[in-house]
Structures are given as C-alpha cells and as structure tokens.
Design goal:
Blueprint: H1 11-29, H2 37-48, E1 52-53, H3 54-61, H4 65-77, E2 81-86, E3 89-97, H5 99-120, H6 125-147
Helix pairs in contact: 1-5, 2-4, 3-4
C-alpha cells in the first residue's frame, strides 16, 4: 500500500512516524523483548546518563514525575534498572541499568542499527550523514529553546 506524500505533514510528525516504524521493526525482530516503547525510552536515557535521577529522566523525556515514577517501578520489577541512594544527597536516587537492562539495550540497539542501515541504504551514506548532523543540530536547538541553554 503506497501512501501519498502529504506536503502539509510536519517534520515532527515524520520523525514520530520514523521512530514508530523503527520500534515496530525492533519488537518484531526481538520476540523476547518485553519492553514497551516508553520503557525502552527510559532505559535509553539511563543508558546514556548512568546515575541520572528520576527528576533528570522526567526533564529529559518531558514527562510528568508520576508517570516516570510508575515506569521506574515497573522497570525495577522487570530487572531492567536499579535505584541507588545518591551519596551526595540521600533524599535522591540514582538510576542505573542492571546487567539484564544492559543486555536488552544492546539487543534492541543492534536491531535498530540493522533497521537504520536498511532504511538509509535507499538514500545513500552522504544523505545519512547530512540527516544525522541535521538531527543533532535540531536536538540542540530544541533543547536550547526548552531550557534557555
């Protein structure tokens, strides 16, 4: 089924669709992966920022604190992450991936890289590099707009 191009479709909508397609591919390839997309996203942030606080996850993902708390609780039950008391502020927890969480991240990231290679083969390496560089610039601009950094 070929979808017609919509010239009014926003870039944000296109990025969301690309993300959804990549996650669907990963879920199909990794039958043993019992993470939802949002759980994977939390694990991805923890993987990128080991020791991040629950507040830090909330800010990074632009999610309310109660939703993040529920996700963290579920991920602890799934043995994907663990909480450790922050030695500098005993009221705060630092979040880390467990051994199982690190393995799940490696597995999912490997499959997503396969998917990216297959998708980007249609546009070539130069376009892939330009798109990647542009997304990094867009991410920095969005972060600056959000946080004034």
């Amino acid at each position: 089924m070929k979808k017609e191009k919509n010239p009014n479709q926003s870039i944000t909508h296109s990025m969301m669709l690309v993300t959804n397609y990549s996650w669907k591919y990963a879920k199909n390839e990794l039958k043993s992966c019992n993470l939802s997309k949002v759980q994977y996203t939390v694990c991805s942030v923890v993987n990128q920022y080991p020791g991040i606080s629950q507040d830090g996850i909330s800010r990074t993902l632009q999610m309310d604190k109660s939703s993040v708390a529920k996700l963290i609780f579920k991920l602890i039950q799934l043995d994907m992450i663990e909480r450790k008391v922050n030695p500098e502020d005993r009221r705060e927890y630092q979040i880390y991936l467990t051994k199982a969480g690190k393995k799940a991240m490696r597995d999912v990231q490997s499959v997503i890289r396969e998917w990216e290679d297959a998708v980007f083969s249609s546009v070539g390496e130069e376009a892939r590099t330009q798109i990647t560089e542009s997304l990094v610039v867009l991410e920095a601009a969005a972060k600056k707009l959000e946080y004034g950094e």
